[in-house]
Amino acid sequence: xxxxxxxxxxxxxxxxxxxxxxxxxxxxxxxxxxxxxxxxxxxxxxxxxxxxxxxxxxxxxxxxxxxxxxxxxxxxxxxxxxxxxxxxxxxxxxxxxxxxxxxxxxxxxxxxxxxxxxxxxxxxxxxxxxxxxxxxxxxxxxxxxxxxxxxxxxxxxxxxxxxxxxxxxxxxxxxxxxxxxxxxxxxxxxxxxxxxxxxxxxxxxxxxxxxxxxxxxxxxxxxxxxxxxxxxxxxxxxxxxxxxxxxxxxxxxxxxxxxxxxxxxxxxxxxxxxxxxxxxxxxxxxxxxxxxxxxxxxxxxxxxxxxxxxxxxxxxxxxxxxxxxxxxxxxxxxxxxxxxxxxxxxxxxxxxxxxxxxxxxxxxxxxxxxxxxxxxxxxxxxxxxxxxxxxxxxxxxxxxxxxxxxxxxxxxxxxxxxxxxxxxxxxxxxxxxxxxxxxxxxxxxxxxxxxxxxxxxxxxxxxxxxxxxxxxxxxxxxxxxxxxxxxxxxxxxxxxxxxxxxxxxxxxxxxxxxxxxxxxxxxxxxxxxxxxxxxxxxxxxxxxxxxxxxxxxxxxxxxxxxxxxxxxxxxxxxxxxxxxxxxxxxxxxxxxxxxxxxxxxxxxxxxxxxxxxxxxxxxxxxxxxxxxxxxxxxxxxxxxxxxxxxxxxxxxxxxxxxxxxxxxxxxxxxxxxxxxxxxxxxxxxxxxxxxxxxxxxxxxxxxxxxxxxxxxxxxxxxxxxxxxxxxxxxxxxxxxxxxxxxxxxxxxxxxxxxxxxxxxxxxxxxxxxxxxxxxxxxxxxxxxxxxxxxxxxxxxxxxxxxxxxxxxxxxxxxxxxxxxxxxxxxxxxxxxxxxxxxxxxxxxxxxxxxxxxxxxxxxxxxxxxxxxxxxxxxxxxxxxx
Amino acid sequence: xxxxxxxxxxxxxxxxxxxxxxxxxxxxxxxxxxxxxxxxxxxxxxxxxxxxxxxxxxxxxxxxxxxxxxxxxxxxxxxxxxxxxxxxxxxxxxxxxxxxxxxxxxxxx
Lengths: 881, 109
Description:
The structure holds 2 protein chains of 2 kinds.
Chain A: H1 12-21, H2 24-45, H3 47-74, H4 79-92, H5 94-123, E1 134-141, E2 144-146, H6 151-158, E3 164-172, E4 177-180, E5 183-186, E6 188-192, H7 196-200, E7 206-207, E8 222-225, H8 227-234, H9 237-240, E9 244-246, E10 251-257, E11 269-274, E12 288-292, H10 298-309, E13 323-326, H11 348-380, H12 382-390, H13 395-431, H14 434-437, H15 448-473, H16 478-483, H17 493-529, E14 539-545, H18 554-567, E15 573-576, E16 590-594, E17 602-604, E18 608-611, H19 615-619, E19 623-626, E20 637-641, H20 642-648, E21 658-661, E22 669-678, E23 694-697, E24 708-713, H21 720-730, E25 735-740, H22 741-748, H23 750-784, H24 786-794, H25 799-831, H26 844-870, H27 874-880
Parallel strand pairs in A: 6-11, 8-10, 18-23, 20-22
Antiparallel strand pairs in A: 1-2, 1-12, 1-13, 3-6, 3-12, 4-5, 7-10, 8-11, 9-10, 14-24, 14-25, 15-24, 16-17, 16-21, 19-22, 20-23, 21-22
Helix pairs in contact in A: 1-2, 1-3, 2-3, 4-13, 5-11, 5-13, 5-15, 5-23, 11-15, 11-17, 11-23, 13-15, 17-23, 17-25, 17-26, 18-21, 23-25, 23-26, 24-27, 25-26
Chain B: H1 8-20, H2 26-37, H3 43-55, E1 59-63, E2 76-80, H4 82-99
Antiparallel strand pairs in B: 1-2
């Protein structure tokens, strides 16, 4: 038998690859086509060129084959086509889509901003990996909540290895001056037990951690740095390792740099060094962080610990009982010291809890309105849906197309919302009083949690709002829908009632927001404009802190500053003072004995306040009686403030009186002779009333311990920069801080500004949102009653009747919403009374104004649908219905 | 009324199918386009386009049974639908109209 020469075959691998790639339906014919052509080419040109041609065919078929598979898999047009179609639909209802996107942006943005702040202040105060197993010990003290254990408590608890796997102490270190970006600045050092950061679950990103033994005397002093500090100081954190830096009394070597964003215990610490070993015989005490034992349950341990360290009748009344608190939930004392040394009264967790609730409600309202818009657009397209389904479109196809259509404005809105949230969050973080910002271990930013919340809000909102409306509008009761091909769309009574209820809720919440906003704005304005007791315009302060170990005597520096500034045209007058307002009042309590009275007149704090003779004039303090002290007066001749005079001399006979301070037993301090009564300096509203101030004109020599402080009267505020430059040139190695007095006060009432700003912002959002909602409902009413309106018009109804018919229901639920809102606002304003700083939460003017504002909004919102109803042509309507 | 929009390659495929008549199948269509335009055509791209035109209702596709005359191979035969023919004519007319009056307008060789 003769052998038949074997014909060449296509490259096997290429053919196999193509057969895998091709869609099953195309596989056989396409491969057959190629095989056929390959044979022809092989016969004509030879096997080699034919194989190369085959390879090119396979290579060029890869992408088309993938596209074909995607097409077949989904059984629908490619996603780009669907999006293009959806875009055309969005473009057609331009105004509605813009409204939709704006509402989504507001919901996402507002929730993002508030969640970011609430996350830092309320939900997740300590963002450490092991935070769930860590606890701290908190107690009340006269100055707020502190987390300190005394030596006995520490000893008792640290021995209970059944409760705690480990216990670490930490404490505030020095704040040396160091060269920083833009000059000299103070740097906060914090001392920690080696092993504490390991317990938190955070290791240095560069270098090594602090190790047990680093704290022992005689060892080389080592520190860890914060990432941004290392970057500023050494350019690159890695380059910081093994470098040395100068702390106040020692040179230390950098052994590690913590990861970026790490904060402990607050936001201001930049250097951590080992907490010095306790000498033998001494006790360990201070703020503590404990790791729970592996099997220990926090509730059980908490009960045991509180029983162990708070026995009944325990002495030491100044500190309250110890409470064990999970580190993630630990309160930071909201009454923080500001940089000016004043207390703030900012109850941040409470405020942000409230704002979170408000933001959630606002988001819910916004989504309800988006649902309203979707429903309205679905109603408009009900006939198109009907025709599409007659032509073979399934309900799933219609819903899918509609979801694409809604996805575009939702995505655009969500994107804008994220931008809004990022901008708002950074604006909020910048607006926080520095002391509050420095309290946060968890920064206010859009992290993955906040982003997750925003995404969840956007996606849930989109699903909840667009699907039901479209599902309803595309219901397969075709005959029913085709019967209603006239211009009126149908809505059942239940659906209308549901919308009324939603609208009432929305209006009431708008009223609550408006009332709260007005109250908080008034509280802010009242605090800002309150009489400070002196003239704060064009008044500035200078603080000069010398570096440790300087050879320059503070008294010399003081003399030079005074003489050079007095000679400068940049100021009008200057005075040194022991304390700058708004500062903390108080000190050790002492009895006050007034001449001629047998018993102490009361207790006063150590309020004697040393000032320069120029102080009163520079500050612009008003003289109410007697005279100001002058250079020739004795240090025992004093000026008291109005509060002091009122409290101890209610009959107005303070001037000329003499008093002593001190314990009942001698020695008493004094006698002091009151030569004048001055206006009272407003320091802060949250201070403990301790009696009042007494000014003593007495120049003690400045010491290195406290910074030199001055008040300066300027010709105008823009001369502050000149004053700062001059002061820095006098003390180039020192930390020089200059500020306007107004700014120092603004820092104290920054909390009021934030509360007023955020609530005011929300109220301003809520008002137009409510307007959109009202518009939507009224438009739907008009659409659903077109036939009725047509009949009424045909029967001779006038325009006023029609207007009443349309606006009437809107006005009814407006009234219900306003009444409900006022009740809720009264309750809500009571709960934030501490934030109102004396502004009365109830007043007819306030509620009247809010009701009028809401009423005007409602009128504007319902005007257009009402006009549309009046333009209905009865003949056309009745013909088509 | 304008028919469905045809992309350039879709139009080539439709024209090739029209040229080949009843005997049009994958390999022939591919060769026809290559022969007339000089443009290399991948078999994958051709089948994807055929499927798309089928979905649009412009072509009907029929896979033949493997027969001895075709060395036991299946073939995908295609034929224009009336709608497809209309769409093709419309697209071709539009193209001619758009080129009308242009100095460089090519003449068929």
